[in-house]
Amino acid sequence: MSEELYEAVTGYCEDVLGGVREYPFGPSAGVYKVAGKMFALLAENADPPRLSVKLPPEEGLALRAEYPEHVLPGYHLNKRHWNTIVLDGALGREEVLALLRQSYDLVVAGLPKRLRPPAPDR
């Protein structure tokens, strides 16, 4: 399940959201950015892979409580806003993609209006 979920995540980040993948932390951590700002970090060498996304603090805490083994405080990130999801199938494909979109939307909302890209589904 994790390989299928990994492929869904990378495809969604690149093809739907138009994210640019960079490797500022080395070859095993893909960082997806919009307008130069990170909205997702994918630990590609972890087994299973791990995805970090930005969420409202209360939602992140609720997910951590519901999935304590699968949603963790953001690894090497601001733990109030960033959450690391273990891509082992505990959270379904649609839920993971929805969290990715939410992270993307939060980051875009924080950009100056002149830098905000059009919504990817428009």
UniProtKB/TrEMBL annotation:
Domain of life where this protein originates: Bacteria
Q: Which residues form a coiled coil?
A: none
User: InterPro entries annotated for this entry?
Assistant: YjbR, YjbR-like_sf, YjbR/MT2646/Rv2570-like
Note the PANTHER family from the entry.
Answer: CYTOPLASMIC PROTEIN, CYTOPLASMIC PROTEIN-RELATED
Q: Which residues form the signal peptide?
A: none
Q: What is this protein called?
A: MmcQ-like protein
What Pfam families does this protein's entry cite?
YjbR
